[in-house]
Amino acid sequence: MPEVYWNHNVHYQRLVLTLVPEGCERALDVGCGDGLLASRLAARVPTVTGVDRSADAIAMARRQYGDLDNVTFVETDYLDDPKGLLPEGKYDLVTAVAVVHHAGFREAVTAIVRLLAPGGRLVIIGLGKDRTPLDWIVRLAGQAASHVLKVFHSGKRGPGGVPGMSPVMSWGEIAREARRMLPGCRFRRLLLRRYLLTWDKPA
């Protein structure tokens, strides 16, 4: 099994795992990268799919976790998926960690919601842009916490070749748009420059 590294996204994978809905049979991890979260979901969910549009990421995921019987890694773009590799309305859980800000928020969320089964759960760990004094206060507090955690975990690391992109929408804009698009959703700002968005699709 590959060595488990630490960074802000990996830190919140444990939170994602606590949100797996009861009776979940099929899970999809969008933007799965090297497959770490998909492999962790596989310990709780009978069938897991990891999807990424990067051929290099999928190759890495298959190399590291391809021996898991209940995990499949698929190379396609969840926003488009021209070959229909991701069946719509079939997943009881869809997770997206540090993925949504790589596209327009509305476009990304709409695409993910199409993949959810009725009664399924959406879990997003995302990034926002600092704009208000409160945003910067939270950012500074998060930086202090991050420094402590980096020491505890022997540094902040991650798989190579992951594209970096800064978020465009502010935390407040994301929260407002999420509540408009997903009535009844829950939005929470997290300390390490992330937010948690959860929503249960009506059955």
Task: Describe it.
There is one protein chain. The termini are far apart. The chain is an alpha/beta fold. It is built from seven helices and seven strands; from the N terminus they run ααβαβαββαβααββ. The radius of gyration is 16 Å and the shape is globular. The protein has a single domain, classed as 3-Layer(aba) Sandwich (Rossmann fold), CATH 3.40.50. The relative contact order is 0.18. The protein has a seven-stranded mixed β-sheet with strand order 3-2-1-4-5-7-6, with helices on both faces. Helix content is 34%, strand content 23%. The longest helix has 20 residues.
Essential attributes:
23% strand, 203 residues, seven-stranded mixed β-sheet, Rossmann fold, 7 strands, 7 helices, alpha/beta
Write the layout of secondary structure elements.
Layout: H1 8-11, H2 13-18, E1 26-30, H3 36-41, E2 47-52, H4 55-65, E3 71-75, E4 91-97, H5 105-115, E5 116-126, H6 133-152, H7 171-181, E6 186-190, E7 194-200
Parallel strand pairs: 1-2, 1-4, 2-3, 4-5
Antiparallel strand pairs: 5-7, 6-7
Helix pairs in contact: 5-7
Helix content: 25-40%
Name of the CATH class: Alpha Beta
H/E element sequence: HHEHEHEEHEHHEE
Structural class designation: alpha/beta
The CATH architecture would be 3-Layer(aba) Sandwich
User: What is the number of helical segments per DSSP (H or I, 4+ residues)?
Assistant: 7
Strand content: 15-25%
What would the principal axes of the Cα set say about the shape? globular
First-residue to last-residue Cα separation = 38 Å
